[in-house]
Each structure stands twice: as structure tokens, then as C-alpha cells.
Structure of catechol 1,2-dioxygenase:
Amino acid sequence: MTVKIFDTPEVQNFLNTIAGFDQEGGNDRAKRILHRILSDLFRTIDDYDITPEEYWSAVSVLNALGQGTQFGLLSPGLGFDHFLDMRMDAADAEAKRTGGTPRTIEGPLYVAGAPEVHGTGRMDDGSDTDGEVMWLNGQVRDTQGNPVAGAKVEVWHANSKGGYSFFDPTQSEYNLRRTIITDSDGRYAVRSIIPSGYGCPPDSPTQEVLNLLGRHGERPAHIHYFISAPGYQHLTTQINLAGDPYTFDDFAYATREELVIPANRIEDADEIARRELDGPFS
Ligand code: MBD
Ligand code: FE
């Protein structure tokens, strides 16, 4: 079947009808956007002679993606999240908003309402016996380099198996998720465990689509951040722990050179003992 009908008046009129162009009501922007998307898809069907069988198999993939967070997971794999970031970067550049830590994608695994701690605290519930202790500290500064006291630093990351609380039923609520308020010097310091990279579930519809593209679904070990303070632009970002085999081969395209952070291994027994006693905070 190699017929081409897209450019005929019948098909063009049909598209106008489907998108509600022939009638009042509805939302004008939605009409125009849906008209564009449907036009592009109809043209694709025409150009590639997509068969009904192929179309219905795509419908069944879309239905499967509708379960759980599966489209949220495929979305960064298909580059939508990074593309939106590229557009925000370009808008910042055009408005001459420069400097500061680069943004990167949020991903599908943020959960609002994490316990709040002031300056210091512990993120893990102690149950991940394979998890290696990690002290995570930093300072929120504005683009002039001045510390921002009382900034909100929301941090979330995976456990040693690459799983996130709320999505991995073996973890307690809000495990490895905290809202940290920076101290008077803009600093925060929390104790947690070193996260592992994330891999899309092998039998998920997301991985099924990636397989069709000959692609893996792996992310390097990373830690997510939202940083906000009144009067400042909200920052969504991540850091990557240096040395992961997927650092520059992230299926979600979220790595940025400036966000790859080498961890320092603390070997000194006295220093470890002092941190165990005092918490992560000194
Ligand atoms: C993750 O942990 C993640 O951050 C993204 C973007 C996609 C899948 C899993
Ligand atoms: Fe993540």
C-alpha cells in the first residue's frame, strides 16, 4: 500500500474538522497545537505507509505507557526534558541571565512534602545495609557569589540499588528525600548513602521503546536538587558522582560537565569517628 493522500483537500478538511476549526468553543491554542500534531502524525503515516497493524501496536505501547510513571520515564529518554531545558537556557541567555549552577532535568521521580531539616540532618532511614555513608554538603550562593541564608534545598536520590522511595515499595516514605533550609552562611550538610545509577525496568514499556531504537535505559549515579529562595529564580538541577560508566552516556541526556562532582573518600579513622559522633556537620 503506497497511496499518498495527505495533501488532498479531503484530508486537509478532515484535519480542520477534527481540530475543531469549524466550530466555536474549546481552546484556540489547544486547537492549533493539536492540529499541528495530528497533521504531522497523519503525514508520517502517509509517508511511511504505516499499516493498521503497526498503528494498533503503537496504541498498545501508548496504553502501557499510560500506566504508572511510564510516560514520565520515556519522556527524558526521548529527549523532551532536555529539549525544554535547552529552551530555558536559550531564554536565559537572551535575557542576559548568566552565571550560577547550570540547570538540568527534574525527571519523573520527585515527590513533594519531604521532611524539612535546618542546615543539617540525615536523609537515609538506616535500612540500606549495602549503602555506603555519604556526607553531602554545599553552599547556596547568588550569581554574585553571596551566600543565601534560609534558601530551600530539596534533595532526592536513589538508594544503593538505584531505587527511589514511593516508586520502590521496599523503601520507607521519604527515604532519601529531604527539604533542607540553609543556615546563616547559606550552607547545608546532610548525611546520606551513596546512590547507585538508575536503570529502566527491563520489561517496562519504556525499555521496550528504547530497545526499538537500539538504546539502553541507564542513568549514572546522580542526586537531584530544587533550589529556591524568595526573589530568586528557581533552580532544578542534579549532580553526578564522577567515575560512573554512564556519566557521559545518560539515557536521559541530563549530564552537564559542570555538574560532575568528584567525591572525596574519607579514609582517616579519626575524621570518620568525629563525623559519626557529631553528624555530618562540622
Ligand atoms: C531517574 O532517576 C531520573 O532522574 C530520570 C530523569 C529518569 C529516570 C530515573
Ligand atoms: Fe533520578
